[in-house]
Amino acid sequence: MGHRQQEPDDLTEHHVIPRSRQGADDETNILFKPIFVHQAWHHMIVNAKPKEVIELFDALARIERGDDTVIEELFDSVVYKIVFRNMTLEKALELIKKRWKKQGGPWELVFGRSDVPYSEAVLIIEKEWMMP
Ligand SMILES: [Zn+2]
Question: Model confidence at 2, in pLDDT bands (50, 70, 90)?
Fold first, then answer.
């Protein structure tokens, strides 16, 4: 009983489809995540939907492989604007490399290691960040 300090691994309610994007506020749309993981997710992903994040990571993986044909579509996508606002692609890639994927950064907190590739991150999103 009584109050205690919140610990970083305390579980918090995460809305798979964010409430700000008309996601339901009930058990059909809520997963429980440790606070530190949850904060790291929103730090990167803001209020994008999991399917949008997968679309983003698929495009970034293709760009990483040298496929420039996806750039224009990515740049016009909803998820790009949500996550990177008006950044250039160059700035966005720098943010990912220097902030998201730094040691102990949000990528490591959400996906387990800072060097998890986009393809693996997509599988983790499907398994852990969408409703079963
Ligand atoms: Zn959340």
Answer: low
Rounded distance between C-alpha atoms, residue 121 and residue 114, angstroms: 11
Distance 16 CA to ligand 1 centre (A): 7
Q: Compute the distance between CA of residue 99 and CA of residue 127 in angstroms, rounded to an integer.
A: 24
* Nearby residues for ligand 1 (ion, Cβ within 5 Å): 14
CB 17 within 8 A of CB 48: no
Residue type, 120: E
Q: Residue 5: which pLDDT band, with cuts at 50, 70 and 90?
A: confident
Q: What are the sequence ranges of the domains in the chain?
A: 11-128
Task: Quote the ligand 1 centre to 18 CA distance (angstroms).
Answer: 7
Question: How far out from the chain centre does Cα 85 lie?
Answer: 15
